[in-house]
Amino acid sequence: MKCYVCAKEGRSSDAVAVCIVCGMGLCEHHAMREELDMWEGGYPFPARRVKAKIPRILCPECYHALKGG
Predict the structure, then answer these.
(1) CB atoms < 10 A from the CB of 21, how many?
(2) Which InterPro entries would you find in this protein's record (predicted)?
(3) Series of mean pLDDT values for 10-residue runs along the chain (69 residues)
């Protein structure tokens, strides 16, 4: 798998991770590791926040959408 961001910029880089939100392949330069809140729930609701944050890999676009930056 190749990095989607690099491919759009006309370069070719091997992917080392996949964005947990959109599934985009990412090279080491474009993969962003972030500690996110984790929620657990079942049917029926309510859901509750898990005590520990879980590390996740995000692409730059999903990272900015989630973090508002």
Answers:
(1) 15
(2) UCP037465_Znf
(3) 97 97 97 87 79 91 86
